[in-house]
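Dear colleague,

Thank you for sharing your sequence with our group. We've completed the structure prediction you requested, and as agreed, I am returning the results in plain text so they can be pasted directly into your records. Please verify that the sequence below matches your submission; if there's any discrepancy, let me know and we will rerun it promptly.
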Amino acid sequence: MKTIKAVVGVLRNKSGQLLIAKRQMHQFMPGLWELPGGKIEAGESTEQTVIRELNEELGIQVDALSLHQTMQYSYADRRVELHIYNIDRYQKTPQGIEGQEIAWSDVAHLSSFNLLPTMKAFIDSITLPSKYWITPSSNHQSETWLAKFEQKLKSDISLIQLRSKVTLDDSFIEELHNKCQQHKIKLLLNTPNKNFNQGSCDGWHLTTNEMLKLPKRPCTADKLLGASTHNLQEALAAQTLGVDFVVISPVQATQTHPDTTPIGWEAAEEVVNKLNIPVYFLGGMGLEDLDKTLKIGAQGIAGVSAF
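Please find the predicted structure tokens below.
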């Protein structure tokens, strides 16, 4: 199977809308919408390719850019290695220089377009935050636990995993979810005996064992679904199941699991490079690790006490 190495650019206008382009009839998968970009030529860096392609396709001059995400996607006859760059600053108004149709779209309306398969993972990556807080897994109704939850509601956290080793009362979960909604925070449940029918949540987080036992994605696409993984094989299995993101752990040594051997940064980066869905790093992570994690191409960091 041939491998195609390509780059795309994420352009936003003053209203925060994203620019997408429609593939022409002579191209692979014609008529589908994608981010503008193209193939890497011999001797080019990925940054040079983005600058050249967006100038040729859109007539713009890129002044500043940053890596957003890397992903791989396998079609029936080819594999695409894709580098996605944020175009942080550019000059001139984008136009369809090569005759292609272009459009500006809000993120919420992207799904109304007939998109390339890689776009689903990209949409997840730009809507998910860089920090994923996991609640302590016990003593949920204690003053200490509730105070910590309230503190996170007032911070910059926008995605929370409600983790518990025992079944929690539905009214308690509903109360927490209502508080999260007031602060525009998404709440995912990681509790025993998941039935994937609860209304008082924005989705679920699967343990590794739960994920490996499921024959197919257990919830609808409008709900978020995450999964815990500990190696590349498990992460690939989660992607095949149809989860929206994975957490890989432990990346570094942790005080809570001192006898568990960390997989290390190199193995964690391999997971990022081999998957086409967002990946969070867990285990020994702190805010000082976030920048390094993002530069690798991961979605961000997860943790109970990381932030």
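Summary note from our side: The chain has eight helices and 15 strands.

Kind regards,
the structure core
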